[in-house]
Fold this sequence. Notes:
Elements: H1 9-20, E1 25-28, H2 35-46, E2 50-54, H3 61-65, E3 66-68, H4 70-76, E4 83-85, H5 87-94, E5 97-101, H6 108-120, E6 122-125, E7 129-132, E8 138-143, H7 152-160, E9 163-166, H8 172-182, H9 188-203, E10 207-209, H10 213-230, H11 237-248, E11 253-254, H12 262-276
Parallel strand pairs: 1-8, 1-9, 2-5, 5-8
Antiparallel strand pairs: 3-4, 6-7, 10-11
Helix pairs in contact: 8-9, 8-10, 9-10, 9-12, 10-11, 11-12
The structure holds adenosine-5'-triphosphate and magnesium ion (MG).
Amino acid sequence: xxxxxxxxxxxxxxxxxxxxxxxxxxxxxxxxxxxxxxxxxxxxxxxxxxxxxxxxxxxxxxxxxxxxxxxxxxxxxxxxxxxxxxxxxxxxxxxxxxxxxxxxxxxxxxxxxxxxxxxxxxxxxxxxxxxxxxxxxxxxxxxxxxxxxxxxxxxxxxxxxxxxxxxxxxxxxxxxxxxxxxxxxxxxxxxxxxxxxxxxxxxxxxxxxxxxxxxxxxxxxxxxxxxxxxxxxxxxxxxxxxxxxxxxxxxxxxxxxxxxxxxxxxxxxxxxxxxxxxxxxxxxxxx
Length: 287
Ligand SMILES: Nc1ncnc2c1ncn2[C@@H]1O[C@H](COP(=O)(O)OP(=O)(O)OP(=O)(O)O)[C@@H](O)[C@H]1O
Ligand SMILES: [Mg+2]
């Protein structure tokens, strides 16, 4: 089932229009900003095949394009039927939408293959021959703007062949709606606190990057469970702090110059947010 996208009308319009215009797309935004969710929604309405590939160092050209079955080749030679299509060739033949996540993790040789397909509309596979992309084939690649892709020549070539749709963090109201969708049982004040905590990590001067809405979702789900395990009320101060540390400290990156641990920064944020949130009447036991 495709999750309903909350908000993002502008990005949805841009992606749909760019695909219809024949362009390939680079979705650029920090982790957890809804790039995959957005694209799944667009793909569901396109009625074309949607092929998702997780970008990683192991995504070699052979994995992306496809390869001959060595045993069958030994027996019968390089016949086309002994070739099994990889995700790229499948999407090209069927006029589908190929979505490559985490493009910045993909090896340079593989990015080169994608560049060729984007500019030539075809690739040449050794011993198989030329494969042309159906005219409705499109490539959408997602990447984090803080990581660069390959060499600067590669990244220039990539930007030059794509339309770039920037996907930033959404506003607090949209984030609350997103969290509520994924943490159905969380009460409204808890959802609001979760979003406030995650957003505060993005603005804290000691932190280079903060938690996405995924952190807020986990917080809103964890608090009630932890309260139940400990048989305390859902607005218990210690349960809130422990949940914040558990769901947020691993998701933030500190500035090099920061002398404190991530846990200390999260605790400071939690104290500040809890002091003003509607979540608990309970006060900070440390005060
Ligand atoms: N606008 C949105 N509407 C609905 N859910 C959203 C939205 N944005 C984020 N989410 C939720 O947040 C989580 C992360 O979203 P998603 O996986 O789409 O992000 P992403 O940008 O693809 O992340 P990454 O860069 O790590 O791949 C998912 O649980 C998703 O359901
Ligand atoms: Mg994604």
